[in-house]
Amino acid sequence: AADKIHLIPQDFFAELCEQIIQHLNRKIPGINTAELCQRIRTSGVEINIGDLAKIANILSFLFSTAARNNLSTEELITTLGSAVSTLPKHAVQVIRHVWNEQGKAIAVSEDARDMATVGQFVDMKWKLGVAMSSDTCRSLKYPYVTVTLTVADPSGQITDRSFEMTIPQFKNFFRQFKEMASVLETV
User: Fold this and answer.
1) COMM domain: which residues (predicted)?
2) Quick check: 82 and 1 in contact, CB under 8 A?
3) DSSP state, 136?
4) Which residues pair with 172 in a beta bridge?
5) 118-185 maps to which CATH number?
6) Region 50-69: what's the mean pLDDT?
7) Across-strand partners of 125?
């Protein structure tokens, strides 16, 4: 993935680094690599989302490790060592600049590290649908609920997970959410 960094224009690479720093500081739930990949493609650069996600993971690991070890900007660049020769000059400049400006702000507490291993809930959307017919059944008229959960995994990648439920399953799901809300109100 590191060899794909040269494909990313400097402004997009800087934006990716900024988002990673913000994610590590818990200011945003994750990095939306799908949206960033689409914007990079729109600018005329061919890169796939898998490579961009790998680059984001590498940078996230780099910044979080540098924060954990309390590295200065020069120590970070020196630690990159041989990778600096393989990285494009603009990438090294962006890493140096972002770390110099915002690196010290990364708070890597034990609680934050423990939370990061779980991931984070970002958003939930739902819609009601009715299956009218299928190849094997002429008249279904079967209602269902489609739920889409947006989740930021521990590395900060934002993904959508969708599933369907019958109406009784959705009512049970809703009841459990109400129970959680009432317990949270007592805390």
Assistant:
1) 120-187
2) no
3) S
4) none
5) 3.10.450
6) 86
7) 148
